[in-house]
Design goal:
With about 500 residues, this protein is of the alpha+beta class. It folds into 2 domains: about 240 residues, Metalloenzyme, LuxS/M16 peptidase-like (Cytochrome Bc1 Complex, Chain A, domain 1), CATH 3.30.830.10; about 180 residues, 2-Layer Sandwich (Cytochrome Bc1 Complex, Chain A, domain 1). It is built from 19 helices and 11 strands. It has a 6-stranded mixed beta sheet with strand order 1-2-6-3-5-4, with helices on both faces. A 5-stranded mixed beta sheet has the order 7-11-8-10-9, with helices on both faces. Helix 3 packs across helix 11, helix 4 runs antiparallel to helix 5 and helix 13 crosses helix 19. The chain is globular, with a radius of gyration of 25 Å.
């Protein structure tokens, strides 16, 4: 009885929260405007505290990396924090000339070191030294981290950025009386970006690659899993980039990437907090209206062919065994997208999920078992994936999800999933920064932020028959890619050998 009362109280609170957080209430507070240059602005008034969160969405990620230059989208994200021709420099005219000399020297060095015929080690060494000398001279004009420091002195919190295969995002919060400072700083870095300390930062990105992939058994497994799952689509690339390509692209390449993809029509700016749209919109127009209108980049036309046979990857290392499994599914525009969301929650959300209950709690053959839809992105057709870590004495082969993913959904399971979707929506709207991100992403993806609420409505309409139908067409053997990481200390390498991993 006590448990039932708690559940009833939760549902009452949930209903009350939804009433205050429904789409109609947001429509009164959200303003959307497309500037003449193509930039879309979303403003949501929320006056609970004198702070405001900002979110900039660029509809370009690692999937847009040019051929032979994987990691370039991520590289420019780093450059966006290096300042402009006014911020981060002690003497811009002198620094501009110095940076031109750096680039000329690098191009000369690159030509020497990449020669297929007539390579001369002495010429390569001399060209490298000339490039390093030019870089050192340019460095003396740099005011390190000035972009960040200006904002932090004015109360910036949570300043960061991220690059995925689908997009690049920039975000932070400020006191509400610093809106104009944000508008100036954010527009400046996309109006006058400078490839300052480019090659120094390229080394940082390479180190990220080394730590996340090359020195990580899990990272290497995921990289091979993606490469096996996608034959032609850019999703086959691990987002950080290939090591040899990271160490080859130039500041000129980064500038070309920026010029092509950082165009106003390919960007959405979201502002959420203690502001009034009628006061903020003119400020946004004043600063972001300076960004020159340029042609919108052409969409990615590569289409991954249907998978016709099961694919497998097996790595052996002195590491904890891991099992990965993925199935191709359509992109987020598909009519069954909500069904995939339901299946993802049903199978893998928390300790009540089907995977956890079956593999961890009941059979005790795994210490972790989770799943997720939309890997490694969801803008293009992607994967419904699972991963599990076997418990001591069990193998990765025991962890295949076939018997779990094709079981019918129960009425109680489906009801729980739908209730949780509503609760997740409320949690996502709880703070300004999370709301700014969601409004920005949904506006960018669907052209209408309201899809954030309609997504929950679509989940509410999903039936057991829908789950059965979509599972039947998705979770087939010929559509499956598996990747396993086996412990090198285990038996001679037979797939069914027992793992030496400890729980």
């Amino acid at each position: 009885m006590k448990r039932l009362l708690l559940i009833f109280s939760f549902l009452v609170c949930l209903a009350a929260s939804l009433a205050a957080q429904d789409m109609a209430s947001f429509e009164k507070r959200v303003t959307v405007k497309k500037l003449p240059n193509g930039l879309t602005v979303v403003i949501c008034e929320r006056h609970e505290a004198p702070v405001v969160s900002f979110f900039t969405h660029v509809n370009a990620g690692d999937a847009q990396d040019p051929k032979g230059q994987t990691g370039l989208a991520h590289m420019f994200e780093h450059m966006a924090f290096k300042g402009t021709d006014k911020i981060g420099t002690a003497n811009w005219p002198a620094e501009k000339l110095a940076l031109q000399r750096v680039e000329q020297a690098y191009q000369a060095y690159d030509r020497e070191r990449t020669k297929e015929v007539g390579r001369d080690d002495e010429k390569i060494a001399a060209a490298k030294k000339a490039w390093e000398d030019a870089t050192e001279k340019a460095q003396k004009y740099v005011v390190v981290n000035q972009f960040d420091e200006v904002l932090e002195r004015n109360g910036a919190e949570g300043m960061n950025a991220s690059t995925s295969l689908d997009e690049t995002q920039y975000y932070y919060s400020l006191p509400s009386n610093r809106v104009e400072l944000w508008a100036y700083m954010e527009s400046e870095r996309f109006l006058h970006p400078v490839m300052r300390e480019f090659y120094k930062e390229r080394d940082v990105v390479y180190e990220e690659r080394r730590m996340r992939v090359d020195s990580s058994p899990i990272g290497r497994l995921v990289e091979q899993f993606q490469a096996a799952s996608f034959v032609v689509h850019p999703y086959h690339n691990e987002g950080i980039g290939d090591a040899s390509e990271i160490t080859s692209f130039s500041a000129t390449d980064a500038q070309k990437f920026f010029d092509k993809y950082y165009v106003p029509s390919n960007m959405v700016v979201a502002i959420v907090g203690d502001v009034q749209a009628k006061q903020v919109m003119p400020i946004v127009e004043k600063y972001f209206g300076r960004l020159p209108a340029r042609p919108e980049p052409e969409p990615l036309k590569v289409v991954e062919p249907a998978q016709r046979a099961e694919r497998t990857v097996r790595l052996v290392d002195t590491a904890q065994p891991i099992y990965l499994e993925g199935y191709h599914r359509p992109d987020y525009h598909d009519p069954d997208d909500a069904v995939y969301d339901v299946m993802s929650d049903l199978l893998s959300n928390g300790r009540t999920s089907r995977l956890y209950r079956a593999l961890v709690r009941d059979k005790k053959i795994a210490v972790v078992a989770e799943g997720f839809s939309g890997f490694p992105g969801n803008k293009y057709p992607n994967l419904f994936a699972f991963y599990a870590i076997p418990s001591r004495g069990h193998t990765t082969q025991e962890l295949q999800s076939d018997r779990l993913v094709n079981q019918d959904a129960g009425d109680d399971e489906l009801k729980t999933v739908k209730t949780r979707a509503k609760a997740d929506l409320i949690r996502g709207l709880a703070n300004n920064s999370g709301l700014a991100q969601q409004l920005g992403v949904f506006q960018a993806y669907y052209g209408d932020w309201r899809e954030l609420f309609r997504q929950v409505e679509r989940i509410e309409k999903v039936t057991k028959a829908d789950v059965r139908r979509v599972a039947a067409k998705t979770f087939t053997r010929e559509n499956r890619t598996t990747a396993v990481l086996e412990n090198a200390a285990s038996d001679s390498g037979a797939p069914n050998s027992k793992s030496g991993a400890k729980q």
